[in-house]
Amino acid sequence: MLDDAQVEEVYRRLAREMPGRTPGAKGPKGQPDAFRSCISCMLSAQSLDRNTAAAARNLFALARTPTAMLALGEGQIAAAIKPCGLYNTKARNIRAFCSALLARHGGKVPETREALMALPGIGRKCADIVLSFTFGEDVIAVDTHVHRVCNRIGLTDAKTADRTAAQLERRSPAWALRDGHFWLIQFGKRICRARAPKCDLCPVAELCEFLAASGVEGQPSFSGRR
Length: 226
Known about the structure:
Distance between the termini: 22 Å
Low-confidence stretches: 218-226
Shape: elongated
Order of helices and strands: HHHHHHHHHHHH
Oligomer: single chain
Structural class: mainly alpha
Number of helices: 12
């Protein structure tokens, strides 16, 4: 992995090149409150964004609170969220989540990672998304793009997204935590793509473990200012 000084330099270059957090950002699921953000994260498992959005619209047209959601019944929930796939399992998880949320927190979504992850259906990624976008915590949520980028360039060395998130929390400078998710996901979509990464345009090419191992020669043509 990159050393501490190199990690800081990666973030500084990404901060110059990527837009970062935009005004009014609501997170990948675009929901206006913590409860619907949690539910939408659960719906997004193994689902395309457009299918998740369709399932969320259907479901929230019927219920927007834990109590109202439980009143629907598992079959109604499953029918509403069918576009996102795995709808029977997700319907059971949603009911379990709502029941636990009411029993343990009076229906209010908790504001700590530990409490969020103790609820059925909520993993590290979903917890961090809610903490960052709903509660304004400085935390880097790790999705597919962030996981790929971090392990490719050497910010982390982890086989799972949860382990990547844990390593990022330890290794990232405090000043980078607020916008780090945005810089990394934007970098992963624009430059460090899963297939055919644009290494010649990469602002961190000289620091990248993947590029060093590939033996590619030549200077990058990015617009970074050092």
